[in-house]
Amino acid sequence: MKKFSTIALALALPLAVSLPVLAQDSERASPPALSSKCTFLPNAPDKHVVVKGDTLWAISGKFLQNPWCWPEVWGMNKDEIRNPHWIYPNQIVYFDRVNGRLRLGTPLTEGASGVTKLTPQTRSLGAEGGNAITAIPNNLIEPYLSQPLIIEKDEFANAPRIVAAQEGRVFMGKGDKTYVRGDLKGEVSFQVFRPGVALKDPETREVIGYEAVFIGTVKLDKKAKTDDGVDTFIVTTSKEEMGIGDRLVPIPPTPIINYVPHRPEKDVKARIVAVYGGISVAGQNNIVSINRGSKSGLDVGTTLELARYGKLIPDRTNDKKLVRLPDETYGRLFIFRVFKNISYGLVMEVTDTVNVGDQVQSPER
């Protein structure tokens, strides 16, 4: 396909609007220079028409060497990074080659000169917001947005718990009654978890949390009538049979998951703690946990590099003294769920298998 000429692009771009908001301040007019790592691909197209199913990650890959540079080429601030409602199907992302930036517009008509006229775009925060493209494919992480659950030490101690089952049963399934004791704090719908595997920091070997096993969901049927009574619940979904001692956690609101891929605010050095599902290694689109969380400044959308320590080998050309090869970067990790000391990430663009203990680090600037 023939690329737009520089002249045609220059005529069209003044009517396009930098996203995500219609800001006209001096900072937007003169955005800061991009870092040396935020370079455009040599074969980047002049434009990309957004279609349903597109993601920010995929569109970024059409223009940029690194997906975490997406906020920089738009001149986005922190609040804008966390607002997903700004690019929709049928809009067009234009590459402003002169200024090294991306612009957004919608074609109206194409005149005889071949120049496409654009109209300024505004964000829709209403029903249309649900059509905004996401950062990564939602279907890959939706099952993990409210499960698994990381439990800090003793966090389950005061959680409501199943103390008995209907008709003296030991286990319960969908539609069964179950009896619960504990403070519901006004909630009526709960997820049911079972304390699971202890997660140990690969560096300190200390337990930094427990990966609770999701069992199912229950809904309040009848409140206890006496102080020493129990609340009656109905099992609404059941992934596994529930049992006495399983704990209840309020069902969280549906989280916003399509934050823009971005660098962490400060340098992060982390390690892979575990591969979700009990397998030993991970690959593309698998879920892993790392030993850093909100305490280290991570948030949803943080994009990190996967790396492996360089091997120690003998110098066979001289004295056979051990020398260390450089660390090797082999993939990326998109953080989508964050706890205090642990985060879950989706493995992206790997060229090798991911192993427990591998490095996770901030992208080079």
TrEMBL record:
InterPro entries recorded: Bact_Kbp, LysM, LysM_dom_sf
Residue ranges of the TM segments: none
Keyword Signal: yes
Domain LysM, residue spans: 46-95
Signal peptide coordinates: 1-23
Alphabetized UniProt keyword annotations: Signal
One Pfam family of this chain: LysM
Protein name per its UniProtKB record: LysM peptidoglycan-binding domain-containing protein
